[in-house]
Known about the structure:
20 strands; alpha/beta; 16 helices; binds calcium ion; eight-stranded parallel sheet; five-stranded antiparallel sheet; globular; single chain; binds alpha-D-glucopyranose
Amino acid sequence: MAINEKKWWKESVVYQIYPRSFCDSNKDGIGDLGGILKKLDYLEELGVDIIWLSPIYQSPNDDNGYDISDYRSILKEFGTMDEFDRLLEEAHKKGMRLIMDLVVNHTSDEHEWFIQSKKDKTNPYRDYYIWKEGKGNQPPNNWGSWFGGSAWEYDENTDMYYLHIFSKKQPDLNWENKKVRQEVYEMMRWWLDKGIDGFRMDVISLISKNLAFPDGEKGDGLYGNLTPYCAHGPRVHEFLREMNQEVLSKYEIMTVGEAACVTLEEARKYAGYDRKELDTVFWFEHMELCSGEYGKWTDEAPKLTELKKVFDKWESGLEGTAWNTLFWSNHDQPRVVSRFGNDGKYRELSAKMLATCLHMMKGIPYIYQGEELGMTNAGFTSLEQYRDIESINAYHENVEQRGLEPEKMMCYLQKVSRDNARTPMQWNDSENAGFTEGTPWIEVNSNYKEINAERELAESKSVFHYYKRLIELRHNMEIIVYGSFEMIMKENEQIFAYKRSLDGQTLYVFCNFTEENVICNEIPKNGKVLISNYTERHSEKLRPYEAVVYEVREESF
Ligand code: GLC
Ligand code: CA
């Protein structure tokens, strides 16, 4: 693919659905495919181009579907394959595309492959997973699972350990085994032949392990860090090129790799135009600016200058090499308005400001369900309200084994637990926010009477309508998709500002990340306001959380 080649996916806006929390159609308290079907009109109204479905496959739900026990069937609670086929057809009829989550770094321990693999050392499926002898009665090395505890689980039956980077119910597949790769490719073809439009590839950067399995660095934690030996491992690019050659290149689709721990240099390899691996990757540096003694568990907020530096680095760093992706939130992150905005007095203004900031940049914007309503963090106050395995494990490990005060950990959970994004979608002000007529699997955010889709659809100044307008602008203005990007006012600690340019046309984007009035001397005198979250403009200052985009055209063009 040539560097500047136009592609449908470069011009798209993606909407991520977390099916369990989106809409329940049969009163069991769990969102499902029937619910998504009912809400396609809503997505059409918003104007998004691509739907990304978090996993809907058969799964014991240890990690809400990211532990798959059968890649070719639909989780019973979510519905049937017929319903899936209908969903795909209806989405296509509306001109939307649909991409699926592909979780192939690991399976569920209830997958038939693992059930076989566990039986004995000579089973034909033994090498589908990563089995190692222990060291005496200790695991093969000191690696800690990303979900807490050791990354190795002892199996009495064969007196060996298997590797699981995530929970012990998510054993890692052995990508060194050609048969595993062929099975995965065949399964991918099966879905692609149904007509899906691509894949979001779960932790794809982890599939190739350093086969020496050395101990990891320990720091203050209880276990060694496996990341340097599992992320961007020795054969990851070779595997992806093979996958591209055997599968991806045969279809007109788009791919986005969840490249956990990716550096700019690695991203250029995964998604480089000339590399024949993936189309795009998610990077996470903006999500990981604050980490402390307890890893991601902290209540610190990053400095705006740091956040700007990260976006600048990735926008400039990928220019001419790979296409960028843009996101503020997903099912693993807290709500953006609570994290980088203000979820109290300035909720609507700051939600719109953050939307402007992201959607005017260069790359594919992702909207996570409810973000377009300005939904906020869950506000849970007791551990019993949480459902997420990562959050619950981290609570126990940090409080019971590492001596962190429970109140402190509860505060960290309120800030960064994944469940903040997983409370049910707020559709209207009826009981359970219109998400279900049963008992929801996780509590609805108590602010649903104020924040809900029905209300926002009816109110032309709502966050929803603002997102809709941003999407329309992207569809109508080539400069927003293809224009070059330049960060300006880099040292300013309150304003996030940048320029986009194409063929004598320039857009100036100014976003005030604070609740203060801020003087801004860079505002162009001859500009026309393209969009703003305030109705009237002040020429020299930005009001609290103000966002404004100016368009300037050069006379000579
Ligand atoms: C990815 C998913 C996350 C899941 C993990 C293990 O990071 O986004 O939700 O827990 O992979 O599959
Ligand atoms: Ca249901």
